[in-house]
Design a protein that fits this description.
The chain is of the alpha/beta class and about 525 residues long. Among the domains are: about 180 residues, FAD/NAD(P)-binding domain; about 90 residues, Guanine Nucleotide Dissociation Inhibitor, domain 1. About 25% of the residues lie in helices and about 20% in strands. The strands form 5 sheets. Strands 5, 7, 8, 9, 10, 17, 18, 19, 20 and 21 form a 10-stranded mixed β-sheet that branches. Belongs to the Rab GDI family. It comes from Sporothrix brasiliensis 5110.
Length: about 525
């Protein structure tokens, strides 16, 4: 331990969230002296993947969080397995095939240590008339996202198919710029509507009805629903559609096995450790005078890179949402481990497609799809993970519910879980139409965890040459690079990756060629026959 204090570190990285860990990966072959610390006793920060025992302890430290394990109702019912057999991701995010993060994982060779599963099917929970005078009876409807899907649909009238095909063609031509060429179909006019809500744009420019708008908005994966801007929504849709089929037929996105971004964090930190980086968990920053650590140790560094970890106190992960210094929106999240495999969600969508490990279900805002015919103020998104992800035992699944926090959002998520389990039970029994006089077998909830997270800001990127931030605790200014809060979304955003590159430039200096960023060759002894992505 004494040598840590004697070393002058080129950089101390505080926190093992996705951004900090990617920076560690980028520096893993730089021959720099790197000390990587984290106030928590686990890797990953807000993106961590925890066992159920760790999740229980994590929830117990947060007033707004709660974990529950319902008792099995009958003998022979599916029961919760050993707590270590589960790995629940606190912020599950998937990667589109054309995501810059995928490119970085490939160029850095980190992909060799990762296993990806397809995320192939996207569904909308639709309300359908009940046979009684009671509330609607929601059912799952798969979203058509390709020309083949649209033409194969039997639930869509010909006019709606033409409208949707026109819009899909428009999205494929979208490149984020206005060419000024008037093609007569609105292609050149989107920039005049760039900051307007996408939902209204879909109706005014393409005549899409409520059902088609729900489908399109669901594919944006935006928690803002119809309020997502035209510019943001079109960019998200273009990324999704152009990613389709890149890694194989029938899917546009992938999910890292064993915990999503939490597994990417583990791989990145292992690479940095192999390259000589030193790791200390349970060590935060006490002050910025030669970095006094919470383990009563002082280290010297040329640059500190940190996230939103508190100085002299707990990490940002330990600060309740109600008292966090981070302002802005928060998200309500619910994780449910259920006793059913849900094969209909993960089945291949086209010939030659793999069995998926993940699926996405959207509950549109304002639609009466919750229990008792209620509607949510904001959309609810559900990421379903099969046992193939390694996050639960065979025969079970993990559901991740997310919506914008409101006064009643916890009840909304609980209602969404109840409604979705009923829809799953009908689907599993071959009764997708939901006959009112027959009761489908119920699906048990084996474990649940409710919690809240700051949403972050997907648009915030530092200046090209950020200045060091002097901390009020120090008399001598110390070079500090601070990552903005990582946006909590269903897919990894591009902007935070640019922040990592800026931090790498700060560490390496202006003489380093930008082309060297994350551009590694295989280490000696690695398997050169591993699959390559083109």
């Amino acid at each position: 331990m004494e040598s840590l204090s004697d070393t002058i570190w080129d950089v101390v990285i505080c926190g093992t969230g996705l951004q900090q860990s990617l920076l560690a990966l980028a520096l893993s072959r730089s021959n720099k002296n790197i000390l990587h610390i984290d106030p928590n006793q686990y890797y990953g920060g807000s993106e961590a993947a925890l066992s159920l025992a760790e999740a229980d302890a994590w929830a117990a430290a947060r007033p707004e969080a709660s974990a529950a394990r319902p008792t099995a109702a009958t003998d022979g019912a599916v029961r919760l397995g050993p707590l270590s057999a589960y790995s629940v991701a606190l912020a599950p995010q998937f990667l589109h095939a054309r995501s810059p993060l995928v490119e970085l994982l490939v160029s850095s060779r980190a992909f060799r240590q990762l296993e990806f599963l397809a995320v192939s099917s996207f569904f909308v929970l639709e309300s359908s008339p009940s046979s009684s005078s009671g509330p609607s009876n929601p059912s799952l409807a798969r979203i058509p996202a390709t020309r083949e899907d649209v033409f194969a649909s039997t639930a869509m009238p010909a006019r709606a198919k033409r409208q949707l095909m026109k819009f899909l063609k428009f999205v494929l031509a979208f490149d984020g710029t206005d060419t000024g060429d008037d093609k007569g179909d609105g292609d050149s006019a989107w920039q005049s509507h760039a900051s307007e809500p996408l939902g209204a744009f879909l109706q005014s420019s393409f005549g899409l009805d409520d059902r088609l708008r729900d489908n399109v908005l669901a594919l944006t994966l935006s928690l803002d629903g119809a309020g997502v801007t035209v510019a943001q929504g079109l960019a998200r849709l273009h990324r999704h559609i152009t990613s389709m089929g890149l890694f194989g037929p029938g899917f546009a996105a992938v999910y890292p096995k064993w915990g999503g971004c939490g597994e990417i964090v583990q791989v990145a930190c292992r690479a940095a450790a192999v390259g000589g980086g030193i790791y200390m968990l349970g060590s935060g920053i006490k002050s910025l005078l030669e970095l006094e650590l919470t383990r009563d140790m002082t280290v010297k560094t040329k640059l500190l890179v940190r996230g939103s970890e508190a100085i002299g106190g707990p990490s940002s992960e330990d600060v309740p949402a109600s008292t966090s210094k981070q302002s802005g929106q928060h998200l309500s999240r619910l994780i449910a481990v259920i006793g059913a495999p849900l094969p209909f969600l993960f089945a291949p969508t086209v010939e030659g497609a793999p069995v998926a490990g993940g699926a996405v279900i959207a509950l549109p805002a304002g639609r009466p799809v919750l229990a008792d015919g209620a509607a949510s103020e904001h959309p609810v998104f559900v990421m379903a993970h099969s046992s193939d992800t390694g996050e639960c035992p065979v025969g079970q699944s993990v559901l991740h519910f997310t919506t914008i926090r409101t006064e009643g959002s916890k009840a909304v998520l609980e209602s969404a879980l109840t409604t979705l389990l009923a829809a799953f039970a009908k689907e599993a029994s071959g009764d997708a139409e939901g006959r009112a006089n027959e009761e489908s077998p119920s699906i048990p909830v084996l474990y649940s965890l409710y919690y809240e997270q700051p949403r972050g800001d997907e648009a915030r990127v530092p200046d090209a040459e950020p200045e060091p931030e002097p901390e009020p605790e120090t008399e001598t200014p110390l070079g500090v690079f601070r990552f903005p809060p990582l946006p909590v979304d269903l897919m990894v955003q591009d902007a935070p990756l640019e922040v990592v590159r800026e931090a790498w430039r700060r560490v390496m200096g202006p003489e380093e060629d930008d082309a060297a960023y994350m551009a590694f060759v295989d280490r000696e002894g690695s398997d050169a026959d591993d699959m390559e992505y083109d």
